[in-house]
Specification:
This protein is mostly helical. It has three domains: 46 residues; 81 residues, Orthogonal Bundle (DNA polymerase, domain 1); 199 residues, hpI Integrase, Chain A, CATH 1.10.443.
Length: 375
């Protein structure tokens, strides 16, 4: 609302942007209300044409952080929010010290080129989405005139086909000279299908050897920015579940957990695995599979997720009902109703079907270690 000053003039304030997270305002004056209205309309016309911009000295780094804190913070799970901060740190290596009004399309294309060379197609698509949202946020505050990323398209690529472990690869797991923690981690992935970070969050309280069950109810947030935190929730709403312990896993868990109390998968220094320490941990597992394969290389796609896919395949081959499989895997699907999850429980899972299937696999392998062929 216009206000009359002591000197007789009329004044009106207009918010034109942000500076250090605070509104930047401009005062418009006029000797009469009619003149004030004209001066206001003239000012807004110049602003809309880009002749007047707010926050000319603000950097991209400041705007990006404002966008995360004001738009994303408080609406996301901790694990998801940490990914935004990690992508922010990467983007700032390219754009952080630049003024948003100086960012050109070519600067973003440079990021795209570098990530294509590293075959990080998905990472670029996420980063492009973040940059686009930040620039649109800056446009709304009058800091930039246009979104220079608008014409840059997301990368299209053919994702690698998911597969299960082969019989030969399963046999390598049995013959590898794993440490107790490595063996327990690998076998838990293979015979429960839990996600990597769900597995890393397991404690002795989650494992009931007498009832032969594992409770999945939390996940580790694997960030390199700070110490890991255990998130008292799983990736999806359907992630809270009880998984039966099959015969191949039972002795491994019993031997490894008998002298444990609390988290069972910790680093030698007693901490949860972070992104970099887990990479080293997993590299050792692969190296021991290579050694068991007479020092011949193993497939590059042997990641923790392939064990989850193998478990899903085992459920199918064992004749487990699809709804039971969805429960055991903690899957959520937009086409699946909430009823699917709320009316299904552990007591309906038939453990004997899995036992019969794993016994058949063991019989087929005859306990032999079969070296893989050269790639």
């Amino acid at each position: 609302m216009p206000k009359k000053r002591k000197d007789g003039r009329y004044a009106k304030q207009v918010t034109i942007g942000l500076k250090d997270g605070k509104p930047v305002r401009k005062t418009i004056y006029g000797d009469t209300l009619k003149e004030l209205d004209k001066n206001y309309r003239d000012f807004m016309s110049l602003k809309d044409k880009g002749i007047i911009l707010a926050g000319k000295d603000v950097t991209y780094r400041e705007i990006h952080r404002l966008w995360i804190d004001n738009v994303k913070k408080g609406t996301l799970k901790p694990q998801t929010l940490k990914r935004y901060y990690e992508r922010e740190r990467f983007i700032n290596t390219y754009l952080g010290d630049m003024k948003p009004i100086n960012i050109q399309k070519s600067h973003i294309e440079k990021i795209r080129s570098d990530l294509i060379s590293e075959k990080m197609y998905t990472k670029f698509n996420y980063i492009l989405g973040d940059i686009r949202s930040v620039l649109q946020y800056a446009m709304e505050d009058g800091i930039v005139l246009r979104d220079v990323s608008a014409s840059i398209k997301r990368l299209k690529y053919e994702p690698p086909k998911r597969r299960s472990l082969t019989l030969e690869e399963r046999q390598l797991l049995e013959g590898a000279a794993f440490t107790p923690i490595e063996k327990c981690f690998v076998y838990t992935l293979l015979y429960t299908g839990v996600r990597r970070n769900e597995c890393l969050a397991l404690t002795t309280d989650d494992i009931n050897l007498k009832k032969r069950t594992i409770r999945v109810c939390k996940t580790v947030v694997p960030s390199n920015l700070e110490k890991n935190v255990v998130q008292e929730m799983t990736k999806t709403n359907a992630g809270h579940r009880i998984i039966p312990i099959s015969a191949p896993l039972l002795p491994v868990l019993h031997a490894y957990c008998q002298d444990k109390n609390g988290p069972i998968f910790l680093t030698p220094t007693g901490h949860y695995y972070r992104a970099k320490t887990f990479q080293k941990f997993w590299r050792e597992i692969i190296n021991k599979m290579v050694a068991a394969n007479n020092n011949r290389p193993v497939a590059e796609d042997i990641t923790p997720h392939i064990f989850r896919h193998t478990y899903a395949s085992d459920l199918y081959k064992a004749g487990i009902d699809i709804k039971q499989a969805q429960y055991l895997l903690g899957h959520t699907d937009i086409t699946t109703t909430l009823d699917t999850y709320t009316h299904f429980g552990f007591l309906d899972v038939k453990l004997d079907k899995m036992e019969d299937y794993y016994n058949a696999v063991k019989k087929q392998s005859n306990g032999k270690i079969v070296p893989l062929k050269h790639a």
